[in-house]
Amino acid sequence: METYDPPRSLASPVDLCAALDAAVTAAHAGAAILQSYAHHRADLVIDRKARNDLVSQADREAEAAIIEQLQARTPKFGIVAEETGGQAQGAATWYIDPLDGTTNFLHDIPHYAVSIALIAHAGTAVSPTERLARDTPVAGVVYDPCREELFTAVYGLGAWLNGRRISCSRTRTLDDAVLATGFPFRDFSFASQYMPMLHDAINRARGVRRMGAAALDLAWTACGRYDGYWEMGLAPWDVAAGTLIVREAGGACSDMHQQDSWPIGGRVVAGNPDIERALHEMIAPHLDQPG
């Protein structure tokens, strides 16, 4: 998948801590709108974008509040958001999912989140001594308003849950691992690849869970609740923040085909280094090669 290639003559390093602070503020603004609607779900106007792909005014209003905050605080960055689109531009681009787990939200299942990530583009300076060679997530927030759990990460500095540093599990083998995944729900074209993967995981792992919110699957992998996670058919904004959070928690999060610098194509494999590697080995025999 093509990525944005900015000019090489870039200014001073991106202030990653300021970017994270802006993202946290924006996430809280979006979540406040979601929670205000959570008590009045019967009144929500719901549109069907495609089969099993729903959007409500809660998604749209939360996204608008998030974008307003980010544009005010970081006007030079690009924005790519689930409902309103956008494009990569400048030194870095925000990827926004105002409500990851829309189906859970609409069915009153308290497992959904706001996900916001900043992707610094190739050539961007992230410190006085480092200029990135490839597009890379550099600041990320996943906020679960039902549990009031705020997962954050900054490139090179670490990952946190409500201000406490987190790390991936130390589980070494799939036999001892609890894995997270997501079933095909919107795009069924890869089901013939995915179902054998699921079969292998069920037979090899200690347990497999499907909770329906990719951003939280990644965040929970980062804090050790899950040992590993894989899924296909996602969007870039589903995985952008979680990718960084896993990486900064000492784990690995990669494109399933191991080609892109982060899983922008929506096929993700994550876990501590041992489990991420084992998942790739489990998946590889069933995975079609990209055309």
TrEMBL record:
Mg(2+) binds at E82, D97, L99, D100, D238. It comes from Achromobacter dolens. Its EC number is 3.1.3.25. The keyword Hydrolase applies. It holds the Pfam family Inositol_P. GO terms for biological process: inositol metabolic process; phosphatidylinositol phosphate biosynthetic process; signal transduction. Its cofactor is Mg(2+). It is an enzyme of class 3 (hydrolase). This is Inositol-1-monophosphatase. It catalyses: a myo-inositol phosphate + H2O = myo-inositol + phosphate. InterPro entries: IMPase (IPR033942), Inositol_monoP_metal-BS (IPR020583), Inositol_monophosphatase-like (IPR000760), Inositol_monophosphatase_CS (IPR020550), Inositol_monophosphatase_SuhB (IPR022337). Keywords: Hydrolase, Magnesium, Metal-binding. Belongs to the inositol monophosphatase superfamily. PANTHER family: INOSITOL MONOPHOSPHATASE, INOSITOL-1-MONOPHOSPHATASE-RELATED. CDD domains: IMPase. GO terms for molecular function: inositol monophosphate 1-phosphatase activity; metal ion binding. The lineage of its organism: Bacteria, Pseudomonadati, Pseudomonadota, Betaproteobacteria, Burkholderiales.
